Amino acid sequence: MTTPEPTTQTTHAPPPGAERDHVAIDVASQTAEALARQPLVNGLVSAAVIVTALYFGRDLLMPLALAVLVGFVLDPLVSWFKRRGLPRALAVCIVMFTTLALLAGSAFFIFGQLRQLGGNLPVYEQNITRKLRSFGDMMRQPGVLDQYSRVVTKVEREIDQAQRAATPPKPAAERPTRVEIVGQSVRPAERVGRWIDGFATPVVMVGIVIVFVFLILLDKGDLRDRALRLLDSNLHRTTDALDEAARRVSKYLGMQLIVNATYGIPMALGLLLIGVPGALVWGVLAAVLRFVPYVGPIIGAVFPVTLAFAVDPGWNMVLWTLALIVTLEVVSNNIIEPWLYGTSTGLSTLSLILAAMFWTAIWGPIGLILSTPITVVLLVLGHHLPQLRFLEVLLGSERALDEPTRLHQRLLAGDVEEAVDLAIQHADAESPRHFYDTVGLDALRLATNAHGTVATAEHRHRVISGMDQLIDEMRDQYPPPPGLPVRVACLGGRWAVDALAADMAAHTLALEGIGSRVVQVGLMSSDHFAQLDLQDVEVVVLCYFTPDPTTLARYFVRRLRRHWPDVRIILAAWNHHPHPPETDVMQAVGADALVTSLDELLAQAHARLTSAEEAPYAPAPLPDNEPDRLRALHGSGLLEPALRRRLDTLAKRAADAFDCSTAWVSLVDEQWQISQGDASMAVRPTPGAPAPTTARALSLCGHVIAQGATLVVPDASRDARFAANPALRERGVRFYAGAPLRTREGLTLGTLCLLDAHPRTLSPRDVMLLENMADEVMRTARQHRKERDARPEGAAPPLARGS
């Protein structure tokens, strides 16, 4: 019998220094967490300090804020007087004196009306007493409620008696003793002092506001310079913030004034017809009180209703007054305010309510009046200044997440049902093509950029499987026309997101009438390529989300060319932002075209299927009002040679503002595009007659004429409509943006257009600026026509400014 040897367990000691490394890692992670919490702590402390300063400094800050608000209202009047040649100090004095005189006159008028109403108070008191007595008699009549009340009272009495019977009586010493507190008499001097304090406080505040308003209007430029210096070091960004804040607040106050007037005037007229005494006073009071959010309209309605109750022995006047107020509220809140306000503030409804509560708690009723303008200013500052960007998220009416980010988040969370709802809602509002191009592909770009960094395997699986289900739902919801011959094959280059993009591209092409299907790609082997099903396929769309697909796509294209030499290949590089020219990428890959969006893909696919050569140029169609437009063009005076120098100056100004190589003021007649203003000819010695420059069939301005709206072509060489345009190729034009020159009747006579040899794009603000400059061209033409008509016959025209 052998004795088993005892088993021993071997333990491995940690290598020297390993424990220290773990400790160092823990310390580093704790330090990183503490640093991550530091900005939040700093923000909370800063917010607490600011709120404390606002509360304890309200006696100084409230008059200053009110003065700034009044300054926004009065500054346009000061600017109007200043444009008429008055010095700013004199203009400020005139505006302040006129404003104070109007306020004083209104106060005397209201005081006189209220004094007149006071003489009839005994009559009103009798009516009120009579109505209250009749109302009390009616309430005292027996009814169902009285029976229930008697039953409840009897039950309460029984319960009270039972409790007293069960509780032993207290000794006399413990019974409560009734004590009556007699107030100390107030001396007359103290009463007068309290009255003076209550009266002096608002008077002093009004005086401080008047002084602040005068100083703000008098030295507006210096105050603006100090604000620019304090807010941010970026002069351009801060200037935009202050300009937009002033514009939004001024627009809000102007629209509020119009809304209040459209409420107060009908209120006064209606009360006058009903017969309520002091109708004009209550109309003015209702208009003024509507400047106070939420509470003001209620207070403004109480006075006329109460007076109608007191004046009329019956109930007709009260009912008519209530009907008038309700009707005006419904019309004002649902028709007038949405029509006039629009998006003038950009604030969400929740932020308006929270701001009203916050500023009322800090500054009282004055804070309620100032809540909306202050919140508008904070929103604009948050939009322009990076350090205050959180204010835009908290206060703005726009969504906190854009649509691609929302879709990506829903997929990350595994909420495929909501992701499908988002997709269908967008597709119903726009189109499936628009959803795929602006939301679907962008969501896949976000997933691609997060791949290998913050995305886990589970995240990637949720996005891919969820997007696959979403595309299937989109195909069921928006089926393509049946029976289309398959002419395009869409292939995903390497990853699963590439295959999803190929599926989106195939669905989009099929919805546009181009038969297409997705071809699954497996191993990159010769046998696999030989087995690809590309029968009757004319165009292959090769999809990649890799930022630089040159190496991968070159190998793929070479294999495709070897097996199917007649197939035209479009490289769809959805996440590609090339620094070199795109033609170098196309040549390196060997593709026939390079696209980065579904719109470009659709245009290139149409072009490749239409002709085996390069894409044909699409001439602009003629608008329906072409005869009227031509008559307006020849009668507008825009074709006069004397106007060329002014238009050259405006074109030069546009080219400098947008940093483009050139800009034109172009007019389009029956067959030609005519250059009437040229940035490169801003110093031409003689005006000369305008000469045709481009045939209308080759003119991009003709497309602006046809659609009557601004046209922006970021890169003409990648736009199938214009890629083969010989006029653009001859001039080397890659970028084009044209804003229409419209008459007051809405007829488009030409364009103010920007041209550049390099691809670029314009932001919405840039487009708005270009359209405003086009309107300036038309104002210049109208002014020139007025000067021409007012000039004596035979007199020489004056020299153009800027010549």
Q: If you compute it from the alpha carbons, what radius of gyration comes out, rounded to the nearest whole angstrom?
A: 38 Å
Structural class: alpha/beta
Classify the helix fraction into a percent range.
55-70%
Strand order of the largest sheet: 8-7-6-11-10-9
Give the tally of β-strands. 11
Average pLDDT, rounded to a whole number, is 80
What would you say about this model in short?
The chain has 803 residues and is α/β, with parallel strands linked by helices.
Entry keywords:
803 residues; disordered C terminus; 5-stranded parallel sheet; 63% helix; alpha/beta; disordered N terminus
SSE arrangement:
Elements: H1 18-56, H2 58-83, H3 88-118, H4 121-140, H5 144-166, H6 188-218, H7 220-231, H8 235-274, H9 279-289, H10 295-311, H11 316-341, H12 349-363, H13 365-384, H14 389-395, H15 403-412, H16 416-429, H17 432-450, H18 457-477, E1 488-492, H19 496-511, E2 516-519, H20 526-530, E3 539-544, H21 550-563, E4 568-573, H22 582-589, E5 593-595, H23 598-610, H24 626-635, H25 644-658, E6 662-668, E7 672-678, E8 691-695, H26 701-707, E9 711-713, H27 726-731, E10 735-742, E11 748-756, H28 764-790
Parallel strand pairs: 1-2, 1-3, 3-4, 4-5
Antiparallel strand pairs: 6-7, 6-11, 7-8, 9-10, 10-11
What does this structure look like?
63% of the residues lie in helices and 8% in strands. By secondary structure, the chain is of the alpha/beta class. The strands form two sheets. The protein has a six-stranded antiparallel β-sheet with strand order 8-7-6-11-10-9. Strands 2-1-3-4-5 form a five-stranded parallel β-sheet, sandwiched between helices. The radius of gyration is 38 Å and the shape is globular.
